[in-house]
Specification:
- The chain is mostly helical.
- The chain has two domains: 142 residues, no CATH class; 182 residues.
- The chain contains 17 helices and no strands.
- α4 runs parallel beside α7.
- It is flat, with a radius of gyration of 33 Å.
- About 6% of the residues have low confidence.
- One of its GO terms (biological process) is maturation of LSU-rRNA.
């Protein structure tokens, strides 16, 4: 009979989201989400069954966030570090809780825990709290140990964001990407319409997608290409209830933050996505009809990437010449529309644009000539000024000769 394991989190994706908040990837440039991760673990504790490694990570991270000399006293900072570190070590090596009775040093050796951790724990418990320099270094080493011995070795079976390395790696990558995308969709549906997703949530989904693409056997580009195909094969970018002529703004608002984040991290993603969009319009006979709602949605996505201000910074990665070449050689309705739009954009860009600044200057000069000197003189005299009968151009500070 299969063993049932109860966890505080609903899906593995939630645990991996917290991991990415505790240990953000090197490419991540968003807000600091460690405080949110600590709060999540605290909520999980109310459910029970939180592994000691997860709780210890939250305690040590919270101690780092507490390390602010302007808001907290040095004594309270040292006490917080000491309490978090002692709980981390004690929860691992205290053999009075579970297992055969052994010394803490023996237990630490079994776990691969540095013996210095046990010594520092003893000092912090029975003597004066160690210095801040020692505590900061020990906390950082503890978080590194937790990563190597727990977080990096989480079961990689596909469950909402990670993958199991098996013989069919490409299938695993596609499955893992699908799980993350479904988690994103279900999370969006479950939230009230008036409540927008936080930026960190979008960044977390985008980070998972990039991370999965990076473990593809054929490299990052192969993973990004698989992501582009998956988005269109499963019609994730389209609203199943949308009718012909309806707006796509809701789908753009939903997907733009995540897709732009992926494109910011991997510029080639926009290349693969746009190529896949134009291939669906030009080479798929099912999308030839002008009345095809799916084809219209794909066209609107491609047009959105080509024209929307939201994609302005990523637009240099778009293969405009390739898109135009593909669409020019096809007779399908939507391919023709794409080609016409691109040609029109090129003509507008190449057209001679009037210089508004020069026209404005001419207009100003014309208005200035229309104002007579007499009118100016009358206005100045009304304020006590008068025009000199003879202009004296002596330098300042010199008097005229009598």
């Amino acid at each position: 009979m299969a063993k049932v394991t109860f966890t505080a989190w609903k899906t593995k994706a939630q645990l991996l989201d917290v991991r990415s908040e505790f240990y953000p990837p090197t490419w991540y440039a968003g807000p600091d989400m460690r405080s949110h991760a600590c709060a999540t673990v605290e909520a999980w504790k109310l459910h029970g069954n939180v592994p000691h490694h997860v709780e210890a990570t939250a305690l040590l991270t919270d101690a780092i966030l507490h390390d602010d000399g302007q808001r907290n006293s040095i004594f309270s900072i040292r006490a917080t570090y000491s309490a978090a570190f002692c709980r981390f070590v004690t929860g691992l090596v205290d053999t009075k809780v579970t297992g055969p009775r052994r010394t803490m040093f023996q237990r630490a050796m079994d776990l691969g825990l540095p013996a210095s951790f046990v010594e520092l724990r003893h000092e912090a418990t029975h003597r004066e709290p160690p210095s801040l320099v020692v505590l900061r270094k020990a906390t950082q080493r503890s978080l590194e140990w937790l990563w190597d011995n727990y977080w990096a070795n989480i079961d990689l079976e596909v469950t909402g964001g990670a993958i199991r390395h098996n013989h069919d790696e490409s299938l695993s990558v596609t499955t893992a990407l699908g799980e993350v995308l479904q988690e994103f969709i279900h999370g969006s549906v479950s939230r009230p319409v008036q409540k927008k997703r936080k930026r960190g949530q979008d960044d977390g989904f985008a980070g998972q997608l990039v991370e999965i693409c990076g473990v593809s056997r054929d490299g990052m580009d192969a993973g990004l290409a698989a992501l582009s195909v998956l988005l269109l094969d499963r019609k994730l970018l389209l609203d199943s209830e949308r009718r012909l002529g309806d707006s796509m703004d809701a789908m753009f608002d939903k997907w733009d933050p995540v897709l732009r984040k992926v494109a910011d991290s991997q510029s080639s993603f926009l290349l693969f996505l746009s190529e896949e969009l134009v291939h669906r319009l030009a080479f798929n006979p099912a999308t030839e009809s002008p009345e095809n709602t799916i084809a219209e949605g794909i066209f609107l996505w491609l047009d959105h990437l080509l024209t929307s201000p939201a994609w302005e910074s990523q637009r240099p990665s778009l293969p405009r010449d390739y898109i135009l070449a593909v669409c020019n050689g096809q007779s399908t309705h939507w391919a023709k529309v794409v080609a016409q739009n691109l040609i029109l954009q090129q003509q507008v860009s190449a057209a001679v644009v009037p210089r508004p600044q020069i026209s404005a200057n001419k207009s100003l000069r014309k208005r200035a000539h229309n104002v007579s000197v007499g009118d100016v003189s009358k206005k100045l005299q009304g304020h006590g000024w008068r025009l000199a009968e003879k202009w004296d151009n002596r330098p300042l500070g010199m008097t005229s000769k009598s």
